[in-house]
Amino acid sequence: MKAYAVKELQHPSKITLTTDWPEPVPKKDQLLVDVYAAGLNYYDILQAQGKYQIKHPLPFVLGTEFAGVVRKAPAGSAFKAGDRVFGAVTGAYAERVAVDPGAVTKLPETLSFEQAAGMYVTWPTSYEALVGRAKLQPGEFCLVTAAAGGVGMAAVQLAKGLGAKVIGAAGSQAKLDIVKKRGGADYVVDYTTKGWQQEVMKITGGKGVDVIYDPVGMITDCLKCIAWKGRALVVGFAAGSIEKVPTNLILLKNISLVGIFWGAYAIREPAHLPTVYREILDLLASGRVSAPVVYERIYSLETLSEGLHALETRGTYGKAVVRIKAEPTKAKL
Length: 333
Ligand SMILES: NC(=O)c1ccc[n+]([C@@H]2O[C@H](COP(=O)([O-])OP(=O)(O)OC[C@H]3O[C@@H](n4cnc5c(N)ncnc54)[C@H](OP(=O)(O)O)[C@@H]3O)[C@@H](O)[C@H]2O)c1
Hints:
With about 325 residues, this protein is α/β, with parallel strands linked by helices. It folds into 2 domains: about 5-120 and about 290-325, Medium-chain alcohol dehydrogenases, catalytic domain (Quinone Oxidoreductase, Chain A, domain 1, Alpha-Beta Complex), CATH 3.90.180.10; about 120-265, Rossmann fold (3-Layer(aba) Sandwich). Helix content is about 25%, strand content about 20%. It is built from 11 helices and 14 strands. The protein has helices at about 40-50, 115, 120-135, 150-160, 175-180, 195-205, 220, 245-250, 265-270, 275-285, 305-310, and strands at about 5, 30-40, 60, 65-70, 85-90, 95-100, 105, 140-145, 165-170, 185-190, 210-215, 225-235, 255-260, 320-325. Strand 11, helix 7 (about 220) and strand 12 form a beta-alpha-beta unit. The two termini are about 30 Å apart. The structure holds NADP nicotinamide-adenine-dinucleotide phosphate (NAP). NADP nicotinamide-adenine-dinucleotide phosphate binds near residues 125, 146, 170 and 239. One of its GO terms (molecular function) is zinc ion binding.
């Protein structure tokens, strides 16, 4: 089968598609799934070069988040052949995967495989951050940095659906337009402009934002516009360095600094996962939250390197996705 395999550690721009990768053989309890679409993640670029904290023995297939159709399920499984699912696995950039049933969720007909391809990690990260960790309340102001990015766009859409007043911050006018039009942000600010925090203070009537959602690693900058008793979420470090936040600011501003590590929930709180996925799918089904935003160019396995390059150079918005198999029916959302 076709697979985007890493045979030696190198930049993805040097990877060529393997057309004779061995078919996966599911273990006794595993599902065999035809992959229709998979989501691109920044850590793919690091993993291909051996620069990510999770290292796989060579050779391995790249990619994690995917959506597809169950081809084979063990007897007595909660899944059956033909079920539409989305999930996470090592080696999602391939025509088929063998996956543990605990790492997939059933996908409603209303969502396309492309929309769901980047949902399994991205959306619960933003949902659990906002709801479980920062306890975002309706009517509160929520500032999202890198608001046009994968987790950022999901945070904008979810915060809006949860009734917050959302301020999306991004690095170009084109991205700000997307955050407003597609993400539904109430306000947008260009965080490359000096003194952008004053604009946020003005928007909030001088109060500041109640919740900061930061996947960039710019918490200290954002604290200039946080409200009394605000909560600042440490989500990631897309800018490349791990920030050291002055703790006197946490004291003086009477705020909380809150972490989110979604990947660890599968190990530490596996029983919580189905609740989070159900609540996300309920919000999408109710129409309170708009469907996941997919980047305008859909890649193929043959052009995947171009997609990873676009991601690396900040050229994408929402979720960049690779289509591996065409969907037979049209999604309704
Ligand atoms: N905590 C968790 O459980 C969890 C889960 C998933 C992801 N994450 C983390 O969240 C972060 C964002 O992931 P993502 O999938 O949303 O990435 P993404 O789609 O690539 O978006 C990242 C955005 O960050 C902004 N950015 C600012 N400075 C940057 C720089 N120096 N280099 C590159 N981008 C920069 C860019 O937007 P502008 O052009 O608008 O500035 C870029 O589009 C990553 O660090 C990831 O590891 C954390």
